[in-house]
Amino acid sequence: MGRARRAAALLGAAALLWMLPGHAGAASPKFSETTSIGVHNAYEKSTYTYFAQALDSGASLLEIDVYTDPLTRRWRVSHSNPLGNDNNCEAAKTPDELYSKSRNQDFGSCLDNIAAWHQLHPDHRPIVFKVEMKNGFNNTIGLGPDEFDTLVRQKLGDMVYKPSDLLGGTYPTLDAAARAGAWPSRDELTGKVIFELIPGTVEQRNPFDHYWTDQEYGDHLRDLYAAGNIDTAQAFPAVLGAAAGDPRTSRYDASIRPWFVFFDGDAATYVDRGYDTSFYAANHYILIATGAAGVSPPISSTDPTDAEVADRLSLLAGKHASIITSDWSAKSPAVLGSVVGRG
């Protein structure tokens, strides 16, 4: 079969998978059983003019970089400026304000845009928002995990699929729930969003910061559960960096390892080094494979052909990725919205 026909077949299968009716019950794949596509740094104006266009893109994951600003005590959204906002999020809180208001807003406004867009598209696909905490949380200025949860909850309400939803009042940890296959179906996640948290590049380079976002939010989840308040948590912390075996063992103490079910690492490292990624699928963990274009043989990181995207999606689905990401914002919603079976 030629590349064009193979791509058409794969995208056709993706469309069939995505279009399963909401009442299909057992026929609808679980969130942990599929592989989809995300867009790196979707908040940048060079990626999309407005963040609402990123939401329109069909992508299953959109990345946002957040700084805690010690001067203003605000959540800033920017790639490299910790003291200012530089992004495509608008001062828009209602659907009719989208695509028209001033940009370079804070994280709260990004959430406002999501809420307004949701009003226009209440039955949208499940979307993961990957939040890179560039310089980490800062409890000393009131910008810690509790405040993050409060902001997300106030802005988005029950749109958010939370850690407590995975626990379902049944399981004692996220690990136990994931291993039991407790993830909902994609149909059940219609209209829902999920927040993934990773430590940021500035935080990781700070010689005075040894308590990064992943550990801090892992501790937060453990403590909330112990206090009977796990329903207030709004995000899933991710283990950052591709590794062979279970990276939680060497990075975290035993008390928080079971609170990590998201893993996030470089696709080429997983694939080209021959890591056994079946571990993630077997335990129903969510594996984010970043830099999908860089897997051998490399393809364009910005505008590959539809056939190349389809081939790369198929390859990484076979390597047990849940979501693959790259800078493919130029691709159509039909391509970015592709969803295929995992593994």
Automatic annotation (TrEMBL):
Residues of the signal peptide: 1-26
InterPro entries xref list: PI-PLC-C1, PLC-like_Pdiesterase_TIM-brl
Keyword Transcription applies: no
Key word Cytoplasm present: no
Family matches, as SUPFAM superfamilies: PLC-like phosphodiesterases (SSF51695)
Domain of life according to the entry: Bacteria
Pfam families linked to this entry: PI-PLC-C1 (PF16670)
Keywords: Signal
Protein known as: Phosphatidylinositol-specific phospholipase C domain-containing protein
Organism listed in the record: Streptomyces thermogriseus
Lineage: Bacteria, Bacillati, Actinomycetota, Actinomycetes, Kitasatosporales
